[in-house]
Design brief:
- With about 280 residues, the protein is of the alpha/beta class.
- It folds into two domains: about 130 residues, 3-Layer(aba) Sandwich (Rossmann fold); about 130 residues, Rossmann fold (3-Layer(aba) Sandwich), CATH 3.40.50.2300.
- Helices cover about 45% and strands about 15% of the residues.
- It has ten helices and ten strands.
- The protein has a six-stranded mixed beta sheet, with helices on both faces.
- Helix 2 packs parallel to helix 3, helix 4 packs parallel to helix 5 and helix 6 packs across helix 7.
- The longest helix is centred in the last third of the chain and has 17 residues.
- It starts with a helix and ends with a helix.
Length: about 280
Amino acid sequence: MQVAAGLNQAAGELQVHVALIGPESYDPAMENSEFQRIASTKPAGILVSVADAKLMTPSIDAAIAQGIPVITVDSDAESSKRLFFVGTDNDDAAQMGARLMAEKLQGEGNVAALYTFGQPNLEQRLEGYKSVIASHPKMKLVDTADLKGDPTAAFDAAESLLNKGKPKLDAFILLEGQSGQQVAEILKRDKKKMVVIAMDALPPTLDAIEQGWITASVAQKPFTMGYMGLRMLADLELYKLPSLTVDFVRDPNSRLPRVVDTGSAMVDSTNLAVYRAASK
């Protein structure tokens, strides 16, 4: 897990203790419960990737009120009192993927999106895709499928969408990383080539790009999220803020950013070697 690798790298450099805790599968209620449990132990700080912003916001706000710095990573709770967000600019990343999709489709075609409904970062990505699709009158987002936090559900979801027949699909948008392998498998089995824009640079996704089942993937920088998140959390411990509850957003002299964009890039057949090396 690249986020964990980034956390461990920073922990080693800083000589601090870090623990990666949470449910093994998508479980917003369990994540919220674990967050509350950890907050009750009064840690020096918490990094959290938010599965359900509405559910987590009161817990984040309560931790901040107790003086515990909270930074969101990868998936945000923007309306909470978290100090700032470290991760991908999801709108920008999605628009990058959408522009390539439009190019490959020559501005015309029916598109379906696979993602977990309600997850903040994934909803932001969908909106980014929609904004580009809207600028192409002959391109339409005709269907979506809820993976409900289970990337293996992408296999059945893709098969179901393909078997509908009408309207004929020309492209898949995959808004979370692990679904790439599942969709590539169904396309390979059915020998159907189409435009597929995936997310992240996991080894199975890279394999599918090389084999031609996935067109390209928008790669995030999860190592950087973990690394920078912990280093910035450590900085908040070393150089404590007078208060965690002031309005950092509207303070022109704020010591904190609102967002730290860790960046994204397109992976396709031309630069696979770089990402294969990084994954090792």
